[in-house]
């Protein structure tokens, strides 16, 4: 294990999405136990112009799989954004993890200087691969996973930070 | 620039805290413009047994400065947890950034295998330095910065994800 571009990205992404999956499973159980319509949580936003839980989950995963394209030059599977149940969100994360499992160190390593351009509403952001990884990809994935966590926590789902962090 | 332990940790931590500082400055301006008592935001929690904004800011910074101790074997300054205003929270981040600026690559690089033990309510977590960095330190700092952001966003402060991510 060393800190090449693969080791610095894919294992952390896999872990973040795996933990998110467990958090969503707890939310699904919570809905069942408390007789809450899961659609209420899946569509919940912390503020009217923030994105709902389903979008937080989708974007976390899309950032993760998109990184393989941006760093490794790989074709990334596109998913429809049509999940409306916890089972469907789980299946989406599962497909994302299955894709990430196909990405190899040989494809990602050496991408430190690769030019990465991200289109945003404020204009293009240009990075070198390493800055993209450290200052855009990882913060973004953790941002959306944490926001998903906070939406659920705000609604009384019994989760704690260690569910987000996961076991060592 | 290469992905040693220093480059993989300190610049990302400095950036996350710098962005948090800008977000808090916007929150302070929001309070002034809308005649909101800043103490309402500083003490706000997304759920009754979650930590308030002040704690999210403190923990993000403490994780960041604690990493220098855990990876570099350095003596880390201790701060009292007594901030009650945005100016005081800003000063705390400022002191944390000033400390991080004194940490050198020579002190942190080579700590990939260093044993790191984290005490948690569920028992000790044992990591090697690299796993600690990737799977505990960075997710934790982003978790607390994002939760601070979500607390403010939930209360109508006009910030967006790019304030959290920062400029490339």
TrEMBL record, chains A, B:
Entry superkingdom: Bacteria
One family name in Pfam for this protein: DUF1993
Name this protein carries in UniProt: DUF1993 domain-containing protein
Organism: Panacagrimonas perspica
């Amino acid at each position: 294990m060393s800190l090449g571009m693969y080791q610095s990205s894919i294992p952390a992404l896999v872990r973040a999405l795996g933990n998110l999956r467990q958090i969503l499973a707890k939310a699904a159980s919570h809905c069942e136990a408390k007789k809450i319509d899961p659609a209420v949580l899946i569509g919940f936003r912390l503020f009217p112009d923030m994105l709902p839980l389903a979008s937080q989950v989708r974007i976390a995963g899309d950032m993760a799989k998109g990184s393989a394209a941006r760093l490794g030059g790989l074709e990334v599977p596109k998913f429809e954004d049509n999940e409306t149940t916890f089972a469907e969100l789980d299946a989406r994360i599962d497909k994302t993890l299955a894709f990430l499992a196909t990405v190899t160190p040989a494809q990602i390593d050496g991408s430190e200087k690769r030019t990465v351009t991200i289109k945003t509403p404020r204009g293009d952001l240009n990075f070198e691969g390493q800055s993209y990884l450290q200052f855009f990809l990882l913060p973004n994935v953790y941002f959306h996973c944490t926001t998903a966590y906070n939406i659920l926590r705000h609604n009384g789902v019994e989760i704690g930070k260690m569910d987000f962090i996961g076991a060592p």
